[in-house]
Amino acid sequence: MKNISNSLLFIFGLMVLIVACSKKEIITPVSKEIIHFDEYHGQKVSDPYRWLENFTDDEVKEWVGLQNNYSQQFLKNRFQKSIKQDLELIWTSEYLSTPFKVGEKIFYYFNTGKLEQNRLMIRDCESCPERILIDPNDFSNDGTVSLASVSVSPNAEWIAFAKSDGGSDWRTWKIMNIASGEILDDEIEWSKFSSAEWSPDSKGFFYRKYLKPDGEELLDLNSSPKLMFHFIGTDQINDEIIVWDENDPLLSRSIEVSDDGQYKILFTEKGTDDRNLISVSRYDDEEFISIIDEFIASYTFIDSEDNYLWFLTDHMAPNGKVVRLDFDNISLGFEEVISETTSSIRSVDLINQSFVINYLDNTFSNIKYFSKDGNEIGSLKLDSLGSISGFTGKKEDKSVFYSFTNFKQPAQIYKLNFLTGISELFWEESLSNFDANNYETRLEFFPSKDGTLIPIHITHKKDLQIESNTPVLLYGYGGFNISILPRFSKRYLAWMNQGGVFALANLRGGAEYGKTWHEQGMLLNKQNVFDDFAYAAKFLHDKKIGSPKTTAIQGRSNGGLLVGAVMLQNPDLFGFAIPQVGVMDMLRFNKFTIGWAWESDYGSPENLDDFKNLYAYSPYHNIEADVCYPPTLVTTSDRDDRVVPSHSYKFAARMQKLQSCNNPIMLRVETRSGHGAGIPRNKLIDEIADIYGIALSFMQKN
């Protein structure tokens, strides 16, 4: 009997061992710590993961490999597979960008739905057949070299086009003869954050160039840019320096040339601050006349005619107004042409000898027409609310292309005839197995912590039974005067097709309600943005739209900072967090590439008041050891030279170290990719499926 019992005990123990082995324990990576302190205004701040800032080092690359392997153990799940299959179907639809004209030629981007990168197409006349002008799918075998920017010469003979390698912000410019397709030997390197602004005679263009980095090109600080001019058919080494101020390396300059070729306008900017300086000259004059010599407001050039130049400005008009400058009487200053209204101005164009103004009314586009002397003469009639873009044309044009979209309406492109006022449908995106009538979207408002009403768009399937256990994806940005407007998104459609609700909160810090809205969410007011986002979640939960256990929050870049800060301040409010390419170390963001430029929105750690504010919400510095944070997937890319990946690396390492419960902190690092632009189709589908799949997987467990 004893031998039987022992045998049974042995068999039972063996079974336990087998079960334990079959349920392989997933062990959280342990990141090396090196004692390091920095001192800010007399206060010592620990930074044990400083070594991860050298993200191109082999040791860091090995660490990234371990992190990716750890995350992959969670990313493979039934939701991920289902979402990827859905996205593959959704992405087979054709894509067409809003066309733009130069002379008689029409240009637009096109994708069959299966190409890694969009092709640039051309019609040599309105009735001419289309042809491929530039196909970036030929740039590389894996689709990771993208077409980042194009600029067509005024005579439509030449096109300057910029390549981006693996998502980097660095651009290499080439020049093509549009008629023959011949690519010249000209090659312009070390350009960043720059367009190519052609001279009126189409013999060359202005561009911005930085010094070649002394060290790692994805890491070095970008400052002291030169404003250059390149002549077609010459070597870059012979390019002319137009402006270069070595005494103030934080200033950058750009030139715009008026459509009639009569004027050139020199803009001086400092970081991402919208306020700028402007100087003007006749095109052939070397000397500029200073018009605005203090950083007091934002000025955007619209167009010119004879001796008049028109600008959009927020000077003493937070929502924007149109002003006019008489070049023959500059001492008179600006004359107001179109006054500020209660709606903020998104854009102004001069087409058909009249101003086309895109106003934002509670985030929706409202297009109005004005005569050149400022009288309202009409508006664009729409059947539904949404976002309009396009309206790129010349003042002589009698027609123009524009696009319309909203959260349930895929892109529609129209051609507007100004003479008849009729908009004719030019192209409409058609998705497989999609019917807009099966979805609904609405705009609501909720009070934030201080009582300010914040707009929130809520979109989902019509037949969805919305309860407290319904999955919710809450997205936000809130910064840098950038508006996040209603638009159709294939990624959000995939979320809704899984039975989820998508919600977009238009937080302060953006431009949805003009300059004042931006200022209420920047610098020492940044906490307002975090409160707005948290109260958006509370508003949804109060209405039984999901719950803390079924709400995922997502944001990119400045929005990644948003997610990081809000999840730390409100750990019990969310079921999953997705901070993407985020600014996570608010005490060192200004030390890499173009990070110094963000001081206009964040402040500087070198300033005592700014330091106190930044340190109070910096995600990397505010993780606590005794708090259970929600499951989190941090995402970044190994070639992101906008928000360098070390932000995400350091944040993930410290989160894994201090997490006090079993909710995993995962890091997903994409390869041959940057901050977001130019990501190939297949990489994008994989990323979306991974992110939304893991979020749904964990929230279902709750």
Task: Walk me through the structure.
This protein has 702 residues and is of the alpha+beta class. It folds into three domains: 35-88 and 433-701, Rossmann fold; 96-336, Methylamine Dehydrogenase, Chain H, CATH 2.130.10; 341-430. It contains eleven helices and 39 strands. The protein has an eight-stranded mixed beta sheet with strand order 32-33-35-34-36-37-38-39, sandwiched between helices. Strands 3, 4, 5, 6 and 7 form a five-stranded antiparallel beta sheet that branches. β12 (197-198) and β13 form a beta hairpin. α3 (78-90) packs across α4 (490-496), α3 (78-90) packs antiparallel against α11 (681-701) and α6 packs across α7 (558-569). 46% of the residues are buried. The model is unreliable at 1-23 (pLDDT under 50).
Helix-strand layout with pairing:
Blueprint: H1 2-22, E1 37-40, E2 43-46, H2 58-75, H3 78-90, E3 95-96, E4 100-102, E5 105-111, E6 119-123, E7 130-134, E8 145-152, E9 158-165, E10 171-177, E11 188-191, E12 197-198, E13 204-209, E14 226-231, E15 240-243, E16 251-257, E17 263-270, E18 276-282, E19 289-292, E20 299-305, E21 308-313, E22 321-326, E23 334-338, E24 344-351, E25 354-361, E26 364-370, E27 376-379, E28 387-390, E29 399-406, E30 409-417, E31 422-428, E32 439-447, E33 453-461, E34 472-475, H4 490-496, E35 501-505, H5 514-519, H6 526-542, E36 551-556, H7 558-569, E37 576-580, H8 599-602, H9 608-617, E38 632-637, H10 646-658, E39 665-670, H11 681-701
Parallel strand pairs: 34-35, 34-36, 36-37, 37-38, 38-39
Antiparallel strand pairs: 1-2, 3-5, 4-5, 5-6, 6-7, 8-9, 9-10, 10-11, 12-13, 13-14, 14-15, 16-17, 17-18, 18-19, 20-21, 21-22, 22-23, 24-25, 25-26, 26-27, 28-29, 29-30, 30-31, 32-33, 33-35
Helix pairs in contact: 3-4, 3-11, 6-7
